[in-house]
Amino acid sequence: MDYSTLKFLHVLSAIFLFGTGVGSAFYLFFTTLNRDVAPVVVVSRLVVVADFVFTATTAIVQPVTGLLLARRAGIPLDTGWLAGSIALYALAIACWLPVVRLQIRMRDLAATASSMALPSGYWKCFRCWVALGVPALLAFIAITYLMVAKPF
Fold first, then answer.
1. Per-residue pLDDT for the chain (152 aa), expressed as one digit of tens each?
2. For residue 75, is it left (φ>0), alpha (ψ between -120 and 50) or beta?
3. Closest C-alpha to 105, from 51, 145, 143
């Protein structure tokens, strides 16, 4: 595969990874805060599906295409901006893996909730989901900056 095709796949997968993550988080966050159980059931189910279809696949494509691009361009992995990006990516994925489990648990808890209220276990998962989502979001923003600016 040539460099341009690899770069296209890398950028496209970054768009899907970041876009799906932000979009899914937005809808689940605000639907949950609305406290209406029926929409939470639907949105939490769709967020889990989106994570498996888009996030999981692009989470694999990103490092593979990134490492191939670095190799093709002759950029050492210890180059500052690239090493920083790799470290931040590891942090984001370390946050995302438990988020997947939390989202599945939230989906299941919402599905069994009464029509009146989400159970306390849902809210505990939600707080952890937010606490892990914020550093992952900030890491992906920083990675995007490092990839574009290559400041060091």
1. 999 999 999 999 999 999 999 999 999 999 999 999 999 999 999 999 999 999 999 999 999 999 999 999 999 999 999 999 999 999 999 999 999 999 999 999 999 998 889 999 999 999 999 999 999 999 999 999 999 999 99
2. beta
3. 51
Structure tokens at 42: 């639907």
- Of all helices (H) and strands (E), which one includes residue 21? helix 3-34
pTM over 0.90: yes
* 37 DSSP 8-state letter: H
Check if the beta carbon of residue 57 is closer than 8 Å to that of residue 63: no
